Amino acid sequence: MKTQHSPTQSTLSAPLTDEVKAALAITQRGCDELLIEAEFIQKLARSAATGIPLRIKLGLDPTAPDIHLGHTVVLNKMRQLQDLGHTVIFLIGDFTSLIGDPSGRNVTRPPLTREQIEANAKTYFEQASLVLDRAKTEIRFNSEWSMALGADGMIKLASRYTLARMLERDDFTQRFQGNTPISIHELLYPLMQGYDSVALKADLELGGTDQKFNLLVGRELQKQYGQDPQCILTMPLLEGLDGVEKMSKSKGNYIGIQEKPADMFGKLMSLSDDLMWRYYELLSFRSLAEIEGFQGEASAGRNPRDFKVLLAQEIVTRFHSATAAERALEEFNHRARGGVPDDIPALTLNGAPLAIGALLKQAGLAPSTTEAMRNIEQGGVRIDGAVVSDKALKVEAGTYVVQVGKRRFARVTVLA
């Protein structure tokens, strides 16, 4: 965690109380960077002294309909700050989605249509409410002030930032040096996100580490509009189930927060032992001392699986219920003993004898016949408990329990 050096008590105009110190510790837990720490301490101290809550902003563009655990890293932090009594603003970027965030992109992001944005936005806050306190959350859409700017307002806003500063951004620099096109509209995105902070008079803005440039633009624009500049809190990007790429639906390495309890539990149990501790750090609400104790027990020889179960139960309980978490554990153990879950999809396919690759694809157990063949090569396909090794297998008419991997099952009836 990288932070600026804390000021001494004498540099503060408001008292640095134990309450402020505790709030700072909660804010910094698990974060990557807090800028500028000295300013944020002063904001906390002033808030505590006056009773006026800080305005804390998180903006998300509704680029997909589902929120996954990676999104909840920053949402969890918002909830912690909300529980401290501050005003949290959940900003839905319905205007900025029309532009497309260039962060971390080596090509231009295709803009979404208004219809796609509206459909995705409907589900965003409903899912975010599983983490945030709905009654205490201010929900805003940035089209509210962005549309009102008009052409003249957009030109005036663009005049407040230079192209040279914009090209200091890593992804723009790499694309410029690599002769990869940068569309003019992409340069507008950081300005529009920054203007959101002006419109909302934000004291603190949260985002992933890939958002740092955009957050700094907001800070600069606030200065130019005569506001106290916001502080910035960046949170690490959560690795997906592969432990390599950041969690992303497009990469297929994600855990959706509305997935079935058994699927969520099973995916969490599939984490590597090392990656499990990363998930504890960024997702668990347990104290750091308790997590360190778990790590000590694992180092002393206790089976890491025990702690993976605790993590999976905590996450499933958060998004479903304690009862659902217990049932998911029972089902997981049942599967581990070679059993078949009670609730599996049943479907009927025609064309017996049916090629195994076509069966797996049509049953929704593999996205393609190529992937189906790969699963067979890896020994991950079973029919009625028996491993399938013959990629040329033709399945005769009948009803079968078909399994791919540890978690995908279907009861398939094949008709002639």
Automatic annotation (TrEMBL):
Catalyzed chemical reaction(s): tRNA(Tyr) + L-tyrosine + ATP = L-tyrosyl-tRNA(Tyr) + AMP + diphosphate + H(+)
Any single GO BP term: tyrosyl-tRNA aminoacylation
Function: Catalyzes the attachment of tyrosine to tRNA(Tyr) in a two-step reaction: tyrosine is first activated by ATP to form Tyr-AMP and then transferred to the acceptor end of tRNA(Tyr).
Family: Belongs to the class-I aminoacyl-tRNA synthetase family. TyrS type 2 subfamily.
Keywords: Aminoacyl-tRNA synthetase, ATP-binding, Cytoplasm, Ligase, Nucleotide-binding, Protein biosynthesis, RNA-binding
Name this protein carries in UniProt: Tyrosine--tRNA ligase
Subunit text: Homodimer.
InterPro entries found in the cross-reference section: aa-tRNA-synth_I_CS, aa-tRNA-synth_Ic, Rossmann-like_a/b/a_fold, S4_RNA-bd, S4_RNA-bd_sf, Tyr-tRNA-ligase, Tyr-tRNA-ligase_bac-type, Tyr-tRNA-ligase_bac_2
UniProt-listed SUPFAM superfamilies: Alpha-L RNA-binding motif, Nucleotidylyl transferase
Sequence motif: 'HIGH' region, positions: 62-71
GO CC field: cytosol
Binding site for ATP: K249
EC numbers, comma separated: 6.1.1.1
Subcellular location: Cytoplasm
One Pfam family in the UniProt entry: S4
Top enzyme class: ligase
Keyword flag Metal-binding: no
Renumbered ranges of motif 'KMSKS' region: 246-250
Family annotation (PROSITE patterns): AA_TRNA_LIGASE_I, S4
Gene Ontology molecular-function annotations: ATP binding; RNA binding; tyrosine-tRNA ligase activity
Species name: Mycoavidus cysteinexigens
